[in-house]
Amino acid sequence: MSRIVLGVAGGIAAYKACEVLRRLRESGHEVTVVPTPNALTFVGETTWAALSGKPVHTGVFQAVTEVPHVRIGQTADLVVVAPATADLLARAASGRADDLLTNVLLTAHCPVLMVPAMHTEMWEHAATQANVATLRERGVLVMDPASGRLTGTDTGPGRLPEAFDIAQVAASLLDAPSTVDAVRARDLAGRHVVVSAGGTHEALDPVRFLGNASSGRQGLALAQAAALRGARVTLVAANVALPIPSGLEVVRVTSTADLAEAMFALQADADALVMAAAPADFTPVDPAVGKIKKDGDGGLTVAFKQTTDVLATLSHDRPRDQVIVGFAAETAADDAELLQLGRAKLARKGCDLLVLNNVSGGAVFGSDANAITIIDATGPVASASGDKTVIAHHIWDAVVASKGDL
């Protein structure tokens, strides 16, 4: 069980931190809430205490025998500040210690994750951007805010990312120390990466389709991880029903033909393409214009044709130097057969890296966990298992290692 400090600054998004707290506790973590005095204007002390099961303080002169302004930060495994207002970012960047939360930030030996939320003008102001840059230089992990509806009728960047998004990032930071180093390094900053996710639908008639069991969860984790590491990320989402992480440019597609069109259009501007989506290999030759009706006791015969091989086309027709990553979901009897199938597919597709997983018995699809082997033309380069948010960073580690100047 990890010990998490949830700092809450005084902004309207403070109420959303209640859901962040719930998700962290349901994941088995011990959470101590440290609100600023202004945060209690939005959500009261009683609420935080009831949801966390722990006493709640805001000042350094409360429970002084326990020296909370030092002990809380020293004993934490992770500090998450959500929301982090413009004021809190400024005080943290200047090293202020005028309430319990800023004292905790100064004494924490663990990773610190700041999740900003404020109006667009405040987020884009040069002072705020300078404070964020200062914090990042010191090793603080700062998520970019989401874009969307703000207080009143305003919209734009500055919205607090959704609770599931924050909780997933927190989980990845706790589960793998290497993830913290990669996010701190922002080794994908200045790069544009395109990630596909989900499974395509090939229409049989207006109400039926040929699909597959891909949920898009691994692709979403890859997109989120790249954004945390500083990349500009375009997500090509094929029938993804899961919530989309914040900070991504999203292109939604349905069929393999749609997926191919979107990926080919985005390729010219991409430094890396990751084909985590599961496209159909076949599509009906003549989809019915109207709903297909039952005709007595007879069956149904449908003629299929092959779809565009998106990964192979991206690999063979790349307009410039870029890293292309493919996925191979195979049913194999053992690791040796999986590797054999992967090598053959890598040779056919022509991509730089291929991520292998064994989906025998329905494994992987829809699950939070995954087990992968990454190969290149020389053979295996890495293996990993665990939560898909952590697996995503292992894949990006392999991408960066494959081309240091990505």
UniProtKB/TrEMBL annotation:
UniProt-annotated stretches for the region Phosphopantothenoylcysteine decarboxylase: 1-192
Region (Phosphopantothenate--cysteine ligase): 193-406
Name of a matching Pfam family: Flavoprotein
Cofactor note: Binds 1 FMN per subunit.
Reaction catalysed by this enzyme: (R)-4'-phosphopantothenate + L-cysteine + CTP = N-[(R)-4-phosphopantothenoyl]-L-cysteine + CMP + diphosphate + H(+); N-[(R)-4-phosphopantothenoyl]-L-cysteine + H(+) = (R)-4'-phosphopantetheine + CO2
Record keywords, A-Z: Decarboxylase, Flavoprotein, FMN, Ligase, Lyase, Magnesium, Metal-binding, Multifunctional enzyme
EC number(s) recorded for this UniProt protein: 4.1.1.36, 6.3.2.5
Domain DNA/pantothenate metabolism flavoprotein C-terminal span(s) in chain numbering: 188-400
UniProt KW Lipoprotein keyword: no
Boundaries of every Flavoprotein domain copy: 3-162
Pathway the protein takes part in: Cofactor biosynthesis; coenzyme A biosynthesis; CoA from (R)-pantothenate: step 2/5; Cofactor biosynthesis; coenzyme A biosynthesis; CoA from (R)-pantothenate: step 3/5
Keyword Lyase: yes
Amino acids binding CTP: D281, K291, F327, K345, K349
Cofactors that this protein relies on: Mg(2+); FMN
One of the record's GO molecular function terms: phosphopantothenate--cysteine ligase activity
GO CC entries: phosphopantothenoylcysteine decarboxylase complex
Gene Ontology biological-process entries: coenzyme A biosynthetic process; pantothenate catabolic process
InterPro entries, A to Z: CoaB-like_sf, CoaBC, DNA/pantothenate-metab_flavo_C, Flavin_trans-like, Flavoprotein
Family to which this protein belongs: In the C-terminal section; belongs to the PPC synthetase family.
NCBIfam families: coaBC_dfp
Function as written in the Swiss-Prot or TrEMBL entry: Catalyzes two steps in the biosynthesis of coenzyme A. In the first step cysteine is conjugated to 4'-phosphopantothenate to form 4-phosphopantothenoylcysteine, in the latter compound is decarboxylated to form 4'-phosphopantotheine. Catalyzes two sequential steps in the biosynthesis of coenzyme A. In the first step cysteine is conjugated to 4'-phosphopantothenate to form 4-phosphopantothenoylcysteine. In the second step the latter compound is decarboxylated to form 4'-phosphopantotheine.
Stated name of the protein: Coenzyme A biosynthesis bifunctional protein CoaBC
